[in-house]
Known about the structure:
Blueprint: H1 12-17, H2 22-34, H3 39-53, H4 70-74, E1 93-94, E2 99-106, E3 111-115, E4 118-121, H5 122-125, E5 139-144, E6 152-154, E7 159-167, H6 176-181, H7 185-188, E8 191-198, E9 206-212, E10 219-222, E11 236-245, E12 250-255, E13 259-265, E14 272-274, E15 279-281, E16 286-290
Antiparallel strand pairs: 1-16, 2-5, 2-15, 3-4, 5-13, 6-12, 7-8, 7-11, 8-9, 9-13, 10-12, 14-16
Amino acid sequence: MIAAMPDPSPPPSLRLLALYPKKLGSGAVGVAARLPLPRGLRRTLLGRFAASYGADLSEAERPLEEYASFLDFFTRRLKPGLRPQAPPVPGRVSSPVDGALIASGRVEEGTLLQAKGLPYRVDELLAGDPLTSRFAGAAYATLYLAPRDYHRIHVPCDGRVLAASRVEGELWPVNEASTAFTPGLYVRNRRAVWIAEGTGPDEGLAVAAVLVGATHVGGCVIDARWLSGRELPRTGRLEIPGLPCAPGDDLGAFELGSTVVLLVGGEKAGAFSFTRPLGPVKVGELLGAFAG
């Protein structure tokens, strides 16, 4: 299920963006987002941002006055209990994010689709990770997070965590226009990768969550619980000794929001499919399971 064929040429705004210093600009936005906000102005400034993008403040864990910066607000937690996990079924994979499911399909001959007519390779997406072979024939789903969305990412399956990695890259936007017209967007941009093997109802599956950065969204953060006191290298990989994970556990966060590409491979990948239709989705809602 992929979007319609793109227009013949990219919009002028995207052509102009090629001239913009995306990493420098993104770094400047990151610095500004971390600046402390005077407590007396927080409700006004953060409230205006939330209103302009349509963020639901009733779900935020804390009142606006308790968010010390824009970044603190962007990476806010939700009130407990707001995102229950789908009931366990064989092969359950739940949504790791609040956002929109914008594409899903199957890896064929090592490629998957970013948009109609724009394929990219799974080995490039995973930067040649030694576990890449587990994702031959994987099902994939692409989930886009808008500025209004909750920006934390959660574990989508039952399993054991095997690896985390990071790839330094470009910072092109991942909006609809850029996705439709920028070849290899997800393998060109900065990204972080989290890989687990399924256990229990997910036995026989391998799951990779690829956090793709974007313009002004340089921060693709893997949660510290998986790193055991280590720091994820700027470009590189860490082995993780089979740490157990469960749906809903913290996986990571975006510092301002972007896109997650979810791969479901393993020896039972052929029995798994994404059944969720394209459109809005919340953390914990069922994306797919074993057929039948």
